[in-house]
UniProtKB/TrEMBL annotation:
GO terms for molecular function: hydrolase activity, acting on carbon-nitrogen (but not peptide) bonds. This is Polysaccharide deacetylase family protein. Transmembrane segments: none annotated. It comes from Streptomyces piniterrae. It comes from the Bacteria. Residues 63-274 form the NodB homology domain. It is found in: Secreted. PANTHER family: POLY-BETA-1,6-N-ACETYL-D-GLUCOSAMINE N-DEACETYLASE, PTHR34216.
Amino acid sequence: MSAVPVFVYHSVSTDPPEWIAPYTVTPRVFAEHLDRIADAGLTVVPLRRLVAAMRGGPPLPTRSAVLTFDDGFADFYWSVTPLLTDRQVPATVYITTGVIHPPGGSPEGSLLPPAPMLSWRQIATLDALGFEIGGHSVTHAQLDTLSAEKAWHEIVDNKRRLEDVLSHPVYAFAYPHGYSSAAVRRTAREAGWTSACAVRNAFSSVTDEPMRIARLMVRADTSPERFTQWTLGMGAPAAPLPESLQTKGYRLYRRARALLGRPVEGPPGPGAMP
């Protein structure tokens, strides 16, 4: 089984809002990451190709990687797109639709603090350029703490909005904060999503779960040495992995906090495996 690093980025900026700064890398560092990926002999493939291989489709190149970007920050359009198009590297961009400003209107709203986000016109342009546009819920809620009805709204309305704007189906979903549960994954499948990314801080593989794809989170404090290890298939476990007792316990804790009206804000530290 060959480990497949599925990298998850958020903002790529030199001046991010304070709240997203721990999950931000600069354009210079991101360009260095692309060079390290190439130097390691990895072929960056579209996420859909990894999913197809999981389902018994055509095999991947011997050493493959996938790039994903969560939330929908505007710097993907200005800073990341030129670097990827110059290198002809594919990527999937997961959109939190509640933060996107429609022309002449107001966004639906989200739980994310203010930050420059992609516009619908930019999203349509990225789609036309060949980047895969995926869903990341409406408000960026922790889906596994919601009622079934609210989770359905977050998952289904997100898909419908993207498809209305892009005029074609979308298939890739990513769970906000990487959090899911068996019920949430079932809802995502019933909504028509054919893949969904978690985080798990682990490598994916062709035997991974299409509705709980493991990813490696790239943070501001991810060292060059750690990133190089990842490109060489080292430094993290490989999926499929059973859900840990720590993850189950933390879900119960977050649900209890949500019921009390005191939700846990954001994901745990880099060592956790949601």
